[in-house]
Amino acid sequence: MGSRVLGGCRALLEAAKANANANTKVARQGGGITKPVPVSPQLGKFLGGVPQASRSLAIKKVWEHIKLHNLQNPTNKKEICCDEKLKTIFDGKDKVGFLEIAKLLSAHFVKTG
Predict the structure, then answer these.
(1) Contact residues for 38 (Cβ-Cβ < 8 A; gap 6+)
(2) The pTM is what?
(3) How many CB atoms lie within 10 A of CB 65?
(4) How far apart are CA 95 and CA 100, in angstroms?
(5) 72: closest CA among 91, 95, 55?
(6) Sign of the C-alpha dihedral computed for residues 40, 50, 54 and 96 taken in this order
């Protein structure tokens, strides 16, 4: 009788494993800061002409631009000296603090629903 019970459990475990493997293949949709949302024309142009972008992608691209063009103040690394391209998305400011970047970018994400 003991072997019948164990055999039944094994069958159930194998079925559960097969079902779990099938469920993990479903692609997940990003959410939160990784969810693509409509952006303003200025930010879309900065990002390469895209109509939608995630917040994390936008911040990543801004930092890539800052590093590529060496726009951090060498004496105060928390300060970013804006070039003309950054001024278009940072309200025309000449300098911004790195903590301001997310706040200034939030105005460029169109609120939906």
Answers:
(1) 51, 52, 109, 110, 112
(2) 0.69
(3) 17
(4) 10
(5) 95
(6) negative
Quick check: 63 and 72 in contact, CB under 8 A? no
C-alpha 49/C-alpha 44 separation (Å) is 5
Per-residue pLDDT of the chain (113 residues; tens, 9 = 90+): 555 555 556 666 676 666 655 544 444 556 777 889 999 999 999 999 999 999 999 999 999 999 999 999 999 999 999 999 999 999 999 999 989 998 999 999 988 76
Positive or negative, the CA dihedral 9, 10, 11, 12 is positive
What is the full DSSP assignment across 10-47?
Answer: HHHHHHHHHHHHHHHTSPPPP-GGGS-EEB-HHHHHHT
Burial of 31 (0-12, 13-18, 19+ CB in 10 A): exposed
Q: Catalogue the long-range contacts made by 12-17 (C-beta closer than 8 Å, 24 or more residues apart).
A: none
Place of tokens 């936008």: 58
